[in-house]
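Journal club prep — side note

Before the paper discussion, L.F. wants everyone to see what a predicted structure for a comparable chain looks like in token form. Sequence:
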Amino acid sequence: MRLYRISFVAGLAVGFVAGTRAGRERYDQMVQMAKTTRENPTFQQAMGTIQSQATDLFSTAQHKVAEGVPQLAHAAAHKVDDMRHRNGHGSGNGKAAANGKGGEGRPFAATTSGHFKHSSH
């Protein structure tokens, strides 16, 4: 996230410098202002806090997605199975499809580890 912000500010500065008619003097002022800001302890502390919060938010989101994906895959597999049965394309072996073993008639079969594997039919 910090990289995107720095890239945006750098692009903005480059665009301003390229578009301005003030010339080298204005460019030198901007460079000096950026250097002064970057070296300011308050600015460095704020950037550290922002980076830490962004890392924490990313980590939390990553864990929530990792926890939710197996549940979504399981729900999707059941939805597909239900739709196939409703449309008359069931496997004919209700026990295997109902208990998640065998994988007949199901595009993703549950393994004993809880992960899903693609079944070819």
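L.F.'s comment for the group: The first strand starts at residue 108 and ends at 110. Keep this in mind when we get to the figures.
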